[in-house]
Amino acid sequence: MGLTVIGMDGGPLPAGGIEALAAAEIVAGGRRHLAAVPLPDAAERVELGPLEPALEKLAGRRAVLLASGDPGFFGIVRVLRERGHTPVVLPAPSSVQALFARLGRSWDDVAVVSAHGRALGPAVNVCRAAAATAVLTAPGAGPAEIGAALDGWPRTLVVAEDLGGPSERLTTLPATEAAGRDWHPLSVVLCLRDAGAVPARGWYAGGEPVPPPGGWALPDDAFAHRAGMVTKAEVRAVVLARLAPRPGTLMWDVGAGSGSVAVECARLGAAALAVERRPDDLARIAENAAAHAVDVRLVDGEAPAALAGLPHPDAVFVGGGGPEVVAAVAGADRVVVALAALDRIAPTRAALLAAGHAVDGVQIAASRLSPLPDGAVRLAATNPITVLWGVRP
Question: Which helix (H) or strand (E) holds 386?
Answer without folding.
Answer: strand 385-391
